[in-house]
Queue: 2 jobs
Job 1
Amino acid sequence: MATAVGHYPATRYAPEPLVNFNSYDERKRLSGSSLAAFFKMMELWKVRDEDAKLLLGGVSNGPFYEMKKNPKQKVLDVDQMYRISYLLGIFKAINILHGQGLADRWVQLPNHGPLFHGQKPLQCMIDGGPAALQDIRRLLEGQIQGT
């Protein structure tokens, strides 16, 4: 199938509509399942609560443990939605690239790749915030694509 330069190839699949995290109604709809996924990732990755709070943007103890206890009751803010979205992309990518055993340990292992400089990916995510989460997700997705 020939494609014009600068255009995406033809596909029979309609793209998913983009989610507007600025919409309170969208965040309300997605927050419970996003938090459930977040806490499951933290469990699989063996991330301490102190670090999980930082991954969410520095959530204090009370709100954090309330989210953990009742994820369906919390509406996340825009920043938290993006952070979890990036983490979900990272989780998916490392599970595509590695077997489950390594995928579940990957964030805790020192990494000598260009973004990490010998640090654990988890520490890079915490220290770098949303920009690091986005960069790590892009790096891993690029590895999946072979670039």
Note: The two ends are 22 Å apart (CA to CA).
Job 2
Amino acid sequence: MKAFLKNYRQSPRKVRLVADLIKGKRVSEAFTQLKNLAKRASEPMDKLLASAVANAKQANAKIEDLYVENVTVNEGIVMKRSMPRARGSASRINKRTSHIMLTLVEKTADKKEKKAVKSDKKEEKAPKVKTIKKVVAKKSKVTKEAEVKE
């Protein structure tokens, strides 16, 4: 379940501070964290999380099992503006935007898949048998074969 927010008018560096706080948390914990956070990006991030939860409901996912798998904040378009400076020159002002992508995952479904994968690997492994030759007597050069199980 994914949700996107494009061209959010705040720099990605500031938005990543909020995004890193909710990565890997349960959805209920993430909502609580965002509501109590004193950052400007917390409100749009809260709306984005609500949108992702609504998308998960449409996909028949249990909301109690949802976790924030990943929050990616990329750079959006940069609006270039100028500010007048001394002697008729101008300096550039970059007004940055962010593209935010939030991904949710159901943890219980992942655990079942991992267990199935582990059981398949156990069936494939069979005990290996090695044959080792040992020299019993140097003069007669008699060799003896022994089977060793690992």
Note: The domain at 2-82+92-109 is CATH 3.90.470.10 (Ribosomal Protein L22; Chain A).
